[in-house]
C-alpha cells in the first residue's frame, strides 16, 4: 500500500510540473513574438518531451490502478481466509465442548430422579432408579438438543457407561446413590417440553414408581473432564 502512495505522489508531481512549465512557456512565446528556427526547434523538442512524459504518466497511472486492484484482491483473500479460520476455531471449540474438554455454562435443565416410596410389599427393585431410567432421560435430552449432560456432576461423553449396582448407579467408574441429578445444557423450554410430552419419558418413569422433578435453570455449569475418563 505504501508503494502505491509513492507512485501516485510521483505521478501528481510530474504532471503538475509539466502543466506549469507548459503554461510558462506559452506565456513567454506570446510576449517574445515570432520564434526563430532554433527557438521553434527547441519548442518542438520540449513539446515532444511533454508528450512522452504524459505517456509515461498514463503508464504509471495504469500501473497504480493495477497495483490497487492487486491490493484489493489480496485484502479480499485475507478476509476470506480469516472467515475460514474463524469457522474452524468455532468448530474446534464446539468439538471440545462435546468431548468435555472445556468448562461449559449456560441455560439448561435439571432433572432429579429418586426412588419411589416402598410399600413394604412386592419387589423393592420396582421402586428404585435403574440405569434404564437414567438412559431414557439422557437420550431424550440429547435428542432434544442438549450439548452437554452430567449425572451428579459426572459429565458424560460419547464413550460413557452407566451401570446399576443395586441401590447405586456407577457412571464411568464412579458410584452415586439416589437421588440422581441429571443436568443438561441447552434450550430449557425445548428440553422441558420433550420430557413432559404426554406418554413421554416423565410419564413412563412415574408409571414405574420413580419420583421425577424437572426444573429449568438459567445457570448450569459443568467442569471439564480430567484424567483418564472416557471421551
Automatic annotation (TrEMBL):
Pfam families: DUF881
Keyword list, A-Z: Coiled coil, RNA-binding
Keyword Coiled coil: yes
Molecular function GO labels: RNA binding
InterPro entries in the record: DUF881
UniProt entry tagged with the keyword Transmembrane: no
PROSITE patterns (alphabetical): S4
Domain of life: Bacteria
Coiled coil segments of this chain: 43-84
Assigned protein family: Belongs to the UPF0749 family.
Name of the molecule in the record: Division initiation protein
Amino acid at each position: 500500500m505504501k508503494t502505491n502512495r509513492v507512485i501516485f505522489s510521483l505521478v501528481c508531481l510530474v504532471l503538475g510540473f509539466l502543466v506549469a512549465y507548459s503554461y510558462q512557456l506559452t506565456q513567454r512565446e506570446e510576449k517574445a513574438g515570432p520564434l526563430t528556427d532554433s527557438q521553434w526547434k527547441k519548442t518542438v523538442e520540449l513539446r515532444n518531451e511533454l508528450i512522452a512524459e504524459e505517456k509515461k504518466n498514463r503508464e504509471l497511472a495504469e500501473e497504480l490502478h493495477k497495483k490497487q486492484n492487486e491490493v484489493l484482491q489480496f485484502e479480499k483473500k485475507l478476509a476470506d481466509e480469516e472467515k475460514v479460520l474463524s469457522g474452524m476455531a468455532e468448530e474446534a471449540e464446539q468439538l471440545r465442548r462435546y468431548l468435555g474438554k472445556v468448562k461449559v455454562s449456560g441455560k439448561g435443565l435439571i432433572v432429579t430422579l429418586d426412588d419411589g416410596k416402598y410399600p413394604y410389599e412386592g419387589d423393592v427393585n420396582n421402586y428404585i432408579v435403574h440405569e434404564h431410567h437414567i438412559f431414557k432421560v439422557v437420550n431424550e435430552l440429547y435428542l432434544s438438543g442438549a450439548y452437554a449432560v452430567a449425572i451428579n456432576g459426572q459429565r458424560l461423553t460419547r464413550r460413557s457407561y452407566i451401570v446399576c449396582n443395586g441401590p447405586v448407579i456407577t457412571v464411568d467408574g464412579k458410584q452415586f446413590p439416589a437421588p440422581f441429578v441429571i443436568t443438561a445444557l441447552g434450550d430449557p423450554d425445548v428440553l422441558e417440553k420433550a420430557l413432559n410430552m404426554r406418554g413421554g419419558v416423565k410419564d413412563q418413569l412415574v408409571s414405574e414408581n420413580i419420583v421425577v422433578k424437572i426444573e429449568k435453570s438459567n445457570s448450569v455449569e459443568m467442569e471439564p473432564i480430567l484424567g483418564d475418563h472416557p471421551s
